[in-house]
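User: Just a sanity check before I run the rest of the batch. Below are the structure tokens for the first item. I only need the designed sequence back.
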């Protein structure tokens, strides 16, 4: 692995999250568009070996160093010959001695009017441009016969028909999967320029939050393990910043410590404007805070800030709202910061299995899953404290900003978790 320690990636401007004066409630689409417009990769690059590439993000276009396939070859087991020597009706061709196999090329040329035994993947010998399937031939020790006509170049692969030498195999910003590594390996690429994994710091806040031995007036920290797991599933490096009670000095210390360990910080709790919302108050007084009131349910408050040059996403403290805000806003934003580009969730239209009356003004996200007959079923309760609904669900139903009456069978938009968690 090689790095360029003297190269400092670009930092976000301190005012990048600022909203225009007079803006109160921000529709989801407008909020997403604003984030997309101001975010760009903030992490450095490095070079790694191909086998280390799974889940990494390419920092440059990858050009094929060789064609795939490198030479014309046979797509089947059969017999190869020059097409011009065949015609209609029964074609009988004498066999030359020897054969062509993958990794064992036939030496010499096949004379016109002759055929050679050839196996799948074998390079086409000189004098061969067409292959007939073994199953379509009558075969003796010295000759083959088959019914013509055979199409020119039948059962063959052209050199470079998959990808030509010098062509772009994968673009900059592509997040590498197992099949991508196969393509890069096949085109002779052994080393990969990638963005360093985005380091995502996760901080939970709140006097009521504990990690063990909870008293009746306390609750266990559900957000931190959830958000750490999300960052890891997104191919990023999760950084556990622990928990801070509602103490301004302690929160300040945690945030400052995080600037040496993380590229971006996700906090949960204290993001609103109440008496105990110490995170937003601290970010407003000593950082650069823009409190976005998103017209969505659940998860209205979203604190976006800069703290000593590090972007901070202040998520709601309720785990249901924290997860949905993280999926809708943090996922595409962190993807852009990581170099993988802005991501938009997959959306499917499914018939509803439920009834609901929705008022205008906010976009709503309902915990949902797909029934055996392909309908969208929603969790029995919309209560934002029902974490069990997150575990029950396999996705979200997204209801538009406008007023809506949903009846069973009506089309609704379904966002699968499988896309969000990868």
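Assistant: Here's the designed sequence for the first item:
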């Amino acid at each position: 692995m090689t790095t360029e320690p003297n190269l400092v990636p670009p930092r976000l401007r301190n005012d990048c999250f600022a909203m225009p004066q007079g803006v109160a409630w921000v529709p989801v689409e407008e909020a997403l568009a604003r984030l997309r417009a101001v975010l760009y990769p903030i992490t450095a690059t490095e070079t790694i070996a191909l086998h280390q590439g799974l889940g990494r993000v390419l920092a440059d276009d990858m050009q094929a160093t060789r064609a795939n396939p490198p030479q014309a070859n046979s797509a089947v087991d059969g017999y190869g010959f020059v097409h011009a020597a065949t015609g209609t009706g029964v074609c009988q061709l004498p066999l030359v001695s020897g054969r062509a196999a993958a990794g064992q090329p036939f030496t010499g040329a096949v004379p016109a009017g002759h055929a050679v035994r050839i196996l799948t993947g074998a390079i086409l010998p000189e004098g061969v441009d067409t292959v007939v399937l073994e199953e379509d031939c009558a075969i003796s020790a010295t000759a083959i016969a088959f019914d013509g006509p055979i199409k020119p170049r039948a059962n063959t692969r052209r050199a470079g028909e998959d990808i030509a030498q010098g062509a772009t195999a994968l673009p900059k910003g592509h997040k590498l999967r197992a099949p991508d590594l196969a393509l890069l390996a096949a085109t002779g690429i052994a080393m990969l320029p990638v963005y360093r994994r985005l380091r995502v710091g996760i901080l939970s806040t709140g006097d009521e939050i504990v990690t063990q031995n909870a008293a009746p007036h306390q609750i266990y920290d559900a957000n931190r393990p959830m958000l750490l797991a999300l960052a890891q599933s997104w191919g990023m490096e999760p950084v556990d910043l622990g928990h801070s009670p509602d103490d301004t000095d302690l929160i300040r210390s945690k945030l400052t410590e995080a600037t040496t360990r993380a590229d971006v910080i996700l906090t949960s709790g204290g993001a609103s404007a109440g008496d105990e919302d110490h995170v937003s108050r601290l970010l407003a007084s000593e950082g650069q805070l823009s409190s976005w009131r998103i017209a969505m349910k659940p998860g209205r408050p979203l604190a976006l800030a800069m703290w000593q040059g590090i972007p901070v996403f202040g998520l709601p403290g309720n785990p249901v709202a924290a997860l949905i805000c993280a999926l809708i806003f943090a996922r595409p934003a962190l993807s852009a910061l990581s170099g993988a580009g802005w991501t938009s969730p997959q959306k499917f239209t499914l018939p509803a299995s439920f009834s609901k009356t929705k008022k205008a003004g906010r976009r709503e996200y309902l915990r949902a899953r797909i029934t055996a007959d392909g309908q969208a079923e929603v969790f029995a309760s919309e209560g934002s404290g029902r974490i069990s609904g997150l575990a029950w669900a396999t996705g979200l139903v997204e209801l538009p900003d406008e007023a809506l009456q949903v009846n069973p069978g009506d089309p609704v938009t379904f966002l699968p978790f499988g896309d969000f968690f990868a």
